[in-house]
Design a protein that fits this description.
With 414 residues, the protein is mostly helical. It contains 16 helices and no strands. 57% of the residues are buried. This is MFS transporter.
Length: 414
């Protein structure tokens, strides 16, 4: 199961069902369209943090209110990720993906012409549906495109779209908004998503649906030893991140001498750090999971705190965004391996719970962060977020021991 900095995940476990008979060349072309889908949707999801200030000024609301657009997107993504398969059990998945991409197009157009914050929020609900549906089906589709021994590589291609969106898409949105206005940014996102929808229709084969995870399976997984505590802890870590990331534009604007160019560079450094962290942590997480379950959240917390203090110490900003990006780029790998360790026989159900947990964290992080920014200011809000992220990392590590201790007893009972 994958996630982005939007909050969704995929695992390398292949679902049942026949594979599409694709040649290697066409398979990788199809995966390239999935990469494009990740890039276009994640870029659209996280454009608000990059244009927060001009949107708030234009619509006559506070930055905290505009930040809630990330929360409402995550809300419908959460619901769609869990329920789409049940709602459309017989629909060809390629057709469903194209329809969802067109829904994202409509969302971006509505945001671009939004006369009020209410219209903007409604449009972002539609984007959330597209995001949740896309991520809930991306693994199913990717595993039909390539042989079983290349599923990991295929998901790496799909997931790379998320990182590239952070490295290039969101900073580019900041620059375009400065040159032509924030509405043009969303028109550009709409055009990109049209291209994505056409590419999916042309390059993807027909994909037969597979059964959904089911509520009962997820309920059993949630009751497994260590899982509930671990999920709450992960929500704390990811929520701490999104408190900071949702309001990163106004935070960076407070730096002495900061301008649009400086902010774009800092956001690009964050994304570049994420790219490095994704591969660096992924290379060692299987051998050092217990250490990374603490180290990665601590790095997120320390970086968020440093950025909160950067108004007084501007030199902290550049290393802070790089470390922050690297830590968040790696946290996805850490959580993925964690769920396979605590639920080795129920990875699909566990993946569904992690999707729900990430989306919940996005909702809480952006919403609570908005209240904090408006009430106590950015600096204090960032410090509280840092403490929450570190506490989550310290708590989740113990769930490995809990799950290991329970496994022999369960085996003996069986």
């Amino acid at each position: 199961m994958t996630t982005n900095q939007t909050g969704t995940m995929t695992t390398a476990a292949a679902p049942p069902g026949p594979r599409a008979p694709l040649s290697p060349r066409r398979a990788w072309l199809a995966l390239a369209t999935m990469f494009l889908g990740s890039f276009s949707l994640v870029t659209a999801e996280f454009l608000p943090p990059g244009v927060l200030t001009p949107v708030a000024h234009d619509l006559g609301v506070t930055e905290g209110v505009v930040g809630l657009s990330v929360s409402v997107t995550a809300l419908t993504a959460l619901l769609t990720a869990l329920g789409l398969s049940s709602l459309f059990p017989r629909t060809d998945r390629r057709t469903l993906l194209v329809v969802l991409a067109l829904g994202a197009v409509a969302s971006n157009v509505l945001v671009a012409v939004a006369p009020s914050i209410g219209v903007l929020m409604a449009a972002r609900l539609l984007l959330g549906a597209a995001l949740g549906g896309y991520w809930s089906m991306s693994l199913v589709i990717a595993t039909r495109l390539v042989p079983a021994d290349r599923v990991g590589r295929s998901m790496m291609v799909v997931n790379a779209g998320t990182t590239v969106a952070t490295v290039a898409g969101v900073p580019l949105g900041v620059l375009i908004s400065a040159a032509a206005g924030w509405r043009v940014v969303f028109w550009a996102a709409a055009v990109l998503t049209v291209v994505t929808a056409v590419a999916m229709r042309v390059a993807l084969p027909r994909i037969a649906p597979t059964p959904g995870i089911g509520w009962s399976s997820m309920g059993r997984a949630l009751r497994s030893p260590g899982v509930a505590v671990g999920l709450v802890s992960i929500v704390a870590v990811i929520a701490g991140h999104f408190v900071g990331f949702t309001y990163v534009r106004p935070a960076l604007s407070l730096l002495p001498g900061s301008d649009v160019g400086t902010i774009a560079v800092l956001l690009a450094l964050f994304g570049a750090g994420g790219l490095v962290g994704n591969f660096a942590v992924g290379a060692v997480v299987d051998r050092h999971l217990a250490v990374l379950l603490v180290a990665v959240p601590v790095a997120i917390g320390a970086s968020v705190a440093a950025l909160g203090l950067a108004v007084a110490l501007p030199a902290l900003a550049y290393p802070a965004v790089i470390v922050w990006g690297a830590a968040f780029g790696g946290v996805l790998n850490v959580v993925q391996v964690w769920i396979t360790r605590v639920l080795p026989g129920q990875v699909e159900a566990g993946s569904g719970l992690v999707v729900a947990g990430f989306q919940t964290a996005i909702i809480l992080g952006s919403a609570v962060g908005g209240l904090g920014v408006d009430a106590i200011g950015i600096g204090w809000t960032y410090l509280v977020a840092a403490v929450v992220a570190v506490a989550g990392g310290l708590a989740v590590r113990g769930t490995l021991r809990t799950a290991r201790a329970a496994r022999p007893a369960a085996t003996a009972t069986a």
